[in-house]
Write a structure and sequence with these properties.
elongated, 2 domains, Alpha-Beta Plaits, 173 residues, 5-stranded antiparallel β-sheet, alpha+beta, 7 helices
Length: 173
């Protein structure tokens, strides 16, 4: 591969690192063409961009980045695919789906999610548990609505303010 082509690839990888706020490093070693194609389709459906890269070029893109990706350098061995995404836990859920199917491939090598670096396949459960921005907003809205729902249900159930006040007093004891 010519130096100009390598430089172009490094620049493109650097742009993807800036464009996508999260990425996962995955080993696809042992995956046949059919399973790789299936994985790519699932990635596409989940708004994940999967790119197979040369480790040396990805290493240089990491070095050129403003973020210190040094803990991930050890993951750059063997066959490496990068899964770029905007939702931190989307690739983790996809990889977990493969784990529940009793397959060890694709295997997580490392990840950069929510401005944190995760190294090793054992971090998959932590990554699945990360909530997306929309999930966090939904949780906050549900928490804010909960007291209002209690008041409305109390008013509808008893119909009397005295009963509602007694219920609130009992709850606060």
């Amino acid at each position: 591969m010519k130096k100009e082509v390598k430089d172009t690839i490094i620049v493109e990888l650097g742009e993807k690192l800036k464009e996508y706020s999260h990425f996962y490093l995955v080993s696809l070693t042992g995956l046949d063409a059919q399973k790789t194609s299936d994985l790519r389709r699932k990635c596409f459906k989940n708004d994940i961009k999967m790119v197979v890269v040369k480790n040396a070029l990805l290493h240089k893109a990491f070095e050129a980045s403003d973020i210190d990706f040094e803990p991930l350098y050890g993951c750059l061995k063997g066959n490496t695919a990068v899964m770029f995404c905007q939702t931190a836990n989307a690739p983790a859920k996809l990889l977990k789906e493969y784990k529940t199917a009793k397959e060890e491939i694709p295997a997580l090598k490392g990840a950069y999610a929510e401005e944190s670096i995760f190294v090793g396949a054992d971090k998959l459960e932590e990554l699945v548990a990360i909530k997306s921005k929309n999930e966090l907003i939904a949780d906050v809205v549900a928490l804010l609505q909960s007291p209002i729902k209690n008041v409305v249900s109390g008013l509808n159930a008893g119909g009397k303010i005295h009963g509602l006040l007694d219920a609130i007093a009992e709850r606060n004891k």
